[in-house]
Amino acid sequence: xxxxxxxxxxxxxxxxxxxxxxxxxxxxxxxxxxxxxxxxxxxxxxxxxxxxxxxxxxxxxxxxxxxxxxxxxxxxxxxxxxxxxxxxxxxxxxxxxxxxxxxxxxxxxxxxxxxxxxxxxxxxxxxxxxxxxxxxxxxxxxxxxxxxxxxxxxxxxxxxxxxxxxxxx
Length: 169
Description:
Structural class: mainly alpha
Mean pLDDT: 83
Low-confidence stretches: 9-20
Largest sheet: none
Radius of gyration: 18 Å
Order of helices and strands: HHHHHHH
Strand content: under 5%
């Protein structure tokens, strides 16, 4: 069974409602969207929905709407480990279950559903969460982005050689 770090956070009183300058992840998401759409700028509705889903999934994993200032790299790494065990389309396949519960339910099936692809974990869920946390850093809500650089290792080189040779005389 997955265990989330929420008990430690609840015990310290650093979870949930806005405490002084410590805004919650949901509040950071709303402010991020408000800023990105200010003055008639647009952010694609699909992208905004993916941001909301990324934040919802992280909150389900943690078990609370945690203050951004207390999110650690360990939280993000543990979340990444959970995402690679997450059945794709888990909300449709396991209606009413949270992300950790859907992972556990999927593992108990005789033939579990396929899990999220590493590219999906990296390019969607970790990337969108990192974008919201970047906003929080840039707006003085946290010191650094704990999601920066956290990715599923796909075994592919980051900087690959060119696929073809440059033209010569």
